[in-house]
Each structure stands twice: as C-alpha cells, then as structure tokens.
Amino acid sequence: MINRRSIITSAARGAVSALAIMAGGTIAVHAANKELKIGFVGVTSGAAAAWGTSNVRSMQTRAAWINETGGVKIGDETYDVKIVTFDDQKDPKRAIAGMEKMAQEGIHYVVGPNVDDGAAAVRPVAESKGIIYFPYAFPKELYTRRHPTPCSA
After folding, report:
1. Helix, strand, coil: what percent of the chain each, to 5?
2. Engineered SS bond to 113: which of 12, 45, 59, 118, CB 3.0-4.6 Å?
C-alpha cells in the first residue's frame, strides 16, 4: 500500500538523485572536493515532524553515499554534497524565511516545503532568487503558470 510517508521518501530520494544526474551524473574520487549545498525547507518539529524528518534523513543518507563514493562530478569539478536544513514549523512565514536563508547561503536547489500553504508561499522567493525547488505538496497555485511563456518564431 502506498502511503504519504513512502511518497515523501521517494520524492526526496528522487530529488537528490535528479540533482546528481542534472549535475553530470558521474561519480569521481578527488582528494579535496568542493561543496554542493542542497537545501531542505519543511516541517521537522511538532505534530507533523515525520513528514519532513523522513525527507531530511533520506537526503542525508543519499548525500553520505555520494560523498563516500567520491562525490558528484559537474563539468571538471567534483563536489561533496552537503544538506542544509531549515525547520519551517509548518508556518508559511517561516517557510519564506527558510527559502530566503537558502538564497543567502548560495543554495540553488531546495527540497520542500512539504505543506501546501508553505510550498505556495515560497514560490515568489524561489523564482526571484533563481532557486530550483522540489516541493512535495500539491496546491494548485504551484502548477499553474504565473506569466505566459513567450513563443519564439
């Protein structure tokens, strides 16, 4: 039976794997790798903590495996993956603060938020800061275009 936890865990694993593939998908061994930070913004405390905690643990486990096998190669550089987390406490305002923190730290890839209103709330910040984020929430606002896509001739 598929439940919310298995969907969330799969989403986190898929996001980290997708980032590795987008980054070049190859693993290489280097003495001193650079660092690739991948963010997580979501609830990891309170009654809904299990939603985010399972994602964070999945991300950390995958990052550890990537790092133990030499890192991820992007172009001519090899990176160790570092997961940076922010507990939004299931509060959209804190989710926005978390996404802003990710931008300040130079993080361009973020998993979460994991609650509909938080995921929708961070969209303007993510878009304005050039952050690619992988929300695992399903509000309609996330999946509609804000501006028409220009067509090229």
Report:
1. 45, 20, 35
2. 118
Task: Give me the helix-helix angle, 92-104 and 116-129, nearest 10°.
Answer: 30
Instruction: Read off φ and ψ for residue 148, nearest 5 degrees.
Output: -65, 145
- In the numeric block, which tokens belong to residue 145? 């275009």
How many CB atoms lie under 10 A from the CB of residue 146?
Answer: 8
The pLDDT profile of the chain, 153 residues, written as one tens digit per residue, is: 455 555 555 555 555 555 555 555 544 444 689 999 999 999 999 999 998 999 999 999 999 999 999 999 999 999 999 999 999 999 999 999 999 999 999 999 999 998 889 999 999 999 999 999 999 887 777 777 765 544 444
Torsion of CA 109, 44, 62, 28, to 10 degrees: 40
C-alpha 37/C-alpha 42 separation (Å) is 16
* Residue 87 Cα distances to 19, 33, 62, 131, angstroms: 22, 28, 20, 18
As beta bridge partners, residue 83 has: 38
Strand segments, DSSP code E, in the chain are 26-27, 34-42, 72-74, 77-87, 109-111, 132-134
